[in-house]
């Protein structure tokens, strides 16, 4: 399963799934634009797919993307009862589900950067961030993802950035421009 491969192989586990999905999309929808979309941790498998789509029309859309792993103490907002995080539990969860811990966090982040290097920079990209989000910030965008990209910052937390009406407007315009 992807979860088992993720714990064992890290970010590289998404590349096999991306190649299979690309083949399907090429057969099922050969002439349609392809907008690859991922939110939060889902931005990683989306980046893997983006790396294999080549020059196909469309673009890459990442909402509050997980582009860098950092210890939970650096991003947990325990001042808010709605966003409170038990950091000890978060560390256990990360180790059990995605295989990242303080001992391999820098290696995990290098793997994310390597995945980003495979992107075709001729395809446009849009990144949406929450202004109060400390887990997904614009400075985390790896340099290979920056060419031909735009970033929008919505006044919201990580959980609410993509639910904000301004995000709807930005997304709708961006998608419409690439769906022709």
Description:
This protein has 180 residues and is of the alpha/beta class. 42% of the residues lie in helices and 13% in strands. It has 7 helices and 4 strands, in the order ααβαβαααββα. The protein has a 4-stranded parallel β-sheet with strand order 1-2-3-4, sandwiched between helices. Helix 2 (13-28) packs across helix 3 (43-52) and helix 3 packs parallel to helix 6 (105-117). It is globular and about 50 Å long. The model has no long low-confidence stretch (mean pLDDT 89).
Q: How would you summarize the topology of this molecule?
A:
Layout: H1 2-9, H2 13-28, E1 34-39, H3 43-52, E2 58-63, H4 72-75, H5 87-97, H6 105-117, E3 125-130, E4 149-154, H7 165-178
Parallel strand pairs: 1-2, 2-3, 3-4
Helix pairs in contact: 2-3, 3-6
